[in-house]
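ok so I'm stuck.
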Amino acid sequence: MPSREYEGKSEKDLISAAAKEIGISEDKLRVEILEKSKGGFLGLGEKIRIRVTYDLADLDVAPDSSALEAYEKVTVDFLAGMFDTMGFDVDIEVDNNGTDRVFIELFSPDSAMIIGKRGKTLESIQMLVNTVGARVPGSASYKCVIDIENYRQKRESTLTDLALRVAQEVIRSGKPKTLEPMNPFERRLIHVALQNETSVETRSEGEGVHRKVRILPRKHQ
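replied:
not stuck anymore, here's the structure
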């Protein structure tokens, strides 16, 4: 379950603020006191830090809200809670363009850690968020695409250039070449980049995380 931490002077005020920010009734929050220090004279300087945990199914969604609005709320709340727990400073923007694809753009000084090596962490986050969003009633057709600092577009450009360069090597040498393991999104970019190349063909080979794209000379009939 997602959780968030809050710090202030009053446990009651913190719980109230948490419920309002998350969009959930106070009685649905599970509250854990992490730190509590007594203040000096008249309680001045008192500090309390709490962690609130909640179930996504308990989030308040207006009766007239559409499934898409509910899907957006659940996925964004989950992301916000996850990054808060991880200690990352992240701003989140959402746009669905009136479609069943929810585009979530992240902005953070911790972008390198969120992206991970060759985008693996970002892909894992997207997969997790889609799994959470699938719990929303009526959201079977919805998918979210998560990007940060335009990483996906930059990666698409890089992979397209790679595909064309390797294809030229295959044409010159007449020998097939196999690229590094890639996720489904990246493999598709390679296939699309070379779909109109009449001198080469592409195939996906291998299983799971080890699946790769192989570029081969096309055998003309």
